[in-house]
UniProtKB/TrEMBL annotation:
A Pfam family annotated for this UniProt entry: RibD_C
GO molecular function: 5-amino-6-(5-phosphoribosylamino)uracil reductase activity
Classification via SUPFAM superfamilies: Dihydrofolate reductase-like
Organism per entry: Streptomyces tendae
Stretches assigned to the Bacterial bifunctional deaminase-reductase C-terminal domain: 5-184
A biological-process GO annotation: riboflavin biosynthetic process
Name of the protein in its database record: Dihydrofolate reductase family protein
InterPro entries given in the database record: DHFR-like_dom_sf (IPR024072), RibDG_C (IPR002734)
Amino acid sequence: MSELLVDFITSLDGYASGEGWPGFWGLEGPEYLAWLTEQPEVTYLMGANTYRLMSGFAAGQVPSGQDEFRPEEESSVDELSQASKVVFSSSLEEPLTWANSTLVRDDAVETVRAMKSSGSGLLSTIGSLSLCRSLLRAGLVDRFRVVMFPVITGATGQERIYDGYPDVALEMVEHRTFDGRIQLVEYKPRVLDHPPLGVPA
C-alpha cells in the first residue's frame, strides 16, 4: 500500500509564496539542498494551477521579477520534470506537455484512495492547496510535512495554506534543522470531529 505525504514549504506565518520573493524565499542553504536531492522516488500529485505554474517553469518561463533562474531553482524544476506526476483537472487538455505527466479527470479523492490501495511507492503532493485540503479531509494523508523558512511575509505573502482546513491533531514523527535556520517538522495527522472542549456553539 502506498503512503501519502502532504508536503509544504512555507514562511513562518504559513504562506506558500510571497510577491517579490524568489523560490525558497532565497534562504535555502547547502544542507537543505543536499537533503532535497536525497529524497526517495516519488509520484507527485497536483492540480491544474500548480501544473500550469510548474510546467511553465520547466518550459523556461522565469518567475515574475527575475531575469533568470537561480541554480537552485533550475535544479529543483529539472528533478520535478524527471519524476512521475499525476495532474487532477477538468480544464486542462491532453496531451500534457510536461514530461512524465498524466492527466486524470476523475474525482481526486477516489482516485488517490485507489492509488494508495493498489500501489507500493510514495505519493506526495506539491503545492495544490485545495487538493491537499480535500485529501486531508478524506482521511487519506499518512504524513504531513512542513519545512518552515525563517521569514514572515505578512505584507507580501500569497496563498495562505491552512485557510479552510478542519481541526487536525498532529503527532510529531520527525523534526530537523537545516543550515541553522530552516525547520522541518513532520507529523501523522488525525482530523478531529470537534475540538477537545466540544462542538463550538
